[in-house]
Each structure stands twice: as C-alpha cells, then as structure tokens.
Amino acid sequence: MAKFIGLIGYPLKHSISPYFQQAALDYHQLDIRYELWETKPGRLESTIARLREPQNLGANVTVPYKETVLPLLDEVDEMASLIGAVNTIVKRDDRLLGFNTDAHGFLQGLRQEGHFEPEGKRVMILGAGGAARAVCFALVREKVSSLIISNRTLIRAEILADSLRSHVAEVGLETEVITMAWQALNSTEAFAHCQLIVNCTTMGMKHSPQEGKSPLSFNVIPQDVLVYDLVYNPHPTPLLRLAEKAGANILGGLAMLVYQGAASFELWTSKKAPVDTMFNRAREAVQKFA
Predict the structure, then answer these.
(1) Is 66 labeled as catalytic in the residue annotation?
(2) CA–CA gap between residue 191 and residue 158 (Å, rounded)
(3) What is the DSSP letter of 222?
(4) Which residues of 192-217 are buried (b: 16+ CB within 10 A; e: fewer)?
(5) How many CB atoms lie within 10 A of CB 11?
(6) Is the separation of the CB atoms in 148 and 140 below 8 Å?
(7) Catalytic choice (13, 40, 66, 271)
(8) Up-side HSE of residue 84: CA atoms within 13 Å toward CB?
(9) Sign of the C-alpha dihedral computed for residues 77, 81, 86 and 91 taken in this order
(10) 152 CA to centre of own chain
(11) How far is it, in rounded angstroms, from Cα 51 to Cα 95?
C-alpha cells in the first residue's frame, strides 16, 4: 500500500518540490508518493487533521503557514520552537512532530554554493516571515557581527528583532540586531559595509502577485556583496539580474530548497538523501517551467 507525503501551502503553482522529492523516494525504491496539498486559507486545520490518516507519513509546510501550523502539532523540536516556524512535519506513533530544516538548508546553500562563511559578517535581511525567522536565527547562531532586518510592515521586523536580541543575550552572543524601515532601502547608505543581502520575501516569485518585481533597485546594490535570493523560480530572479548587473555575487534559492528538502527527506525516511539526484531533478524542473 502506497504511503504519502505532501506539501502544504497556498498557492503552490510555483513549487518544484514534488519533482526532486519524488526522485529521492524513487532512488531508494520506496512506495511513497510526494504530492501538492494546496490548502486555501481557513482549511489548514482540516489538512493537518488528515495527516493523521494511516497512509500519510508527513509533510512540508510553506508560505503562508510556517508559523500558524505550530499550535496544530503535538510537539515541536527545539530549533523550530526557537525560530517560531515549522517547515517539516513528521508523523511518529500517531503524533505529529514539527521541525525546521530551513535554517540548515540556508546555511548549507550559503557555504556549499555561495562559498560564504557568515561569522563576523554584516547582513541585511529583507522580510520578516517564517523563512526570514529561520535565516536570522541561523545567522545569529553562526556569529554574524550585525543583522539588519527590513520588512514592509515594520512591526513584524521589530517583533523578530526582539526575539533575536533575547536569544543573543540568553546564549551570550554579540550580534547586533537592528531594524530598518522598508522605505530606507532606497538609499545606498542602507547597505554600507554590508557583505550579504538575503531576500526572504516572495517578491519576484513566479505565479505570485509580485512576479517580475525586485525588492531592491539597481543603484543601491553594492559591488562584491553576495545577494542570496531565496526565491528559486524563476532563475535568475529580477533581483539577481539587477545584482549581477551591479557587480555583486549572486546565489539563487534552489540550493536552500534542495538542502532543506534533503534534511526533510531524511526525517521522513531515515535514509540518506541522494542530494545530487535531487539537485539534478530540481534544475530540470526549473528549466522546464521557466
């Protein structure tokens, strides 16, 4: 009898997760199907309840449910609880356990594909949602020197910054965490001495309301900075096109997507993820739907 794993989010037209996750499941000859479980607002609770059915093994969670899913789970692991966001659900003994593999996937992509070591660096974060929370906590734990968070709704950035400052003080780190108004991103001064810019918004994502748009203009992007756009479809994104034109180094979101997916795969199956196979299928899927 086939088992199932799903991706929970809305909308999901842009997602390529079924392509590379199914490739990994097939690599190990597992009778498991990875599906898109598009869940409209107001239907999240019923979708999570169906996860408890015997044929279902777990799920990935994406925008906009990474934070709102927490109270619907039986248990949340330490990292996901710290971040305040879950992107992976694993069913064990009829209990739904929440994990966050985004932080791991982000750092793996940053180091393996971006060749960037975050310790001691100055970082600008665009966005303050679930993905941004994972990225920020990952960077703080890697001892970046400063973290600037900007979000269209400033209060969300301030809430995230307060959580980070509390964690920094609790564990004895020294990262400076500040917020910046979204409008201030129009100034080159906002990026002075910045070495890494991470776009954690969905701006520029294919099939989104902001498809074709960039959160930054060409003239504010410094030369030699690394611009890491977590949006993976299309590639390159509008932001990465502008960054490359400005003389910056660029990294797309495919690396984070695959590395976080590989970590999720291992939680569901207890088998080693075939990362090369997953990368190959993910690249094919992006090209197919470009």
Answers:
(1) yes
(2) 19
(3) P
(4) eebbbbbbbbbbbbbebeebeebbbe
(5) 17
(6) no
(7) 66
(8) 14
(9) positive
(10) 18
(11) 10
Do residues 48 and 68 make contact, with C-beta atoms less than 8 angstroms apart? no
Q: Provide the token pair at 89.
A: 């659900």
User: Residue with structure tokens 């997602």?
Assistant: 15
pLDDT tens across the length of the chain (290 residues): 899 999 999 989 878 999 999 999 999 999 999 999 999 999 999 999 999 999 999 999 998 999 999 999 999 999 999 999 999 999 999 999 999 999 999 999 999 999 999 999 999 999 999 899 999 999 999 999 999 999 999 999 999 999 999 999 999 999 999 999 999 999 999 998 999 999 999 999 987 889 999 999 999 999 999 999 999 988 899 999 999 999 999 999 999 999 999 999 999 999 999 999 999 999 999 988 76
CA distance 90 to 73: 10
| Token pair belonging to 111 | 């180091």
Domains, the chain, ordered by start: 3-100+255-288 (3.40.50.10860), 104-252 (3.40.50.720)
114: its two tokens: 């971006």
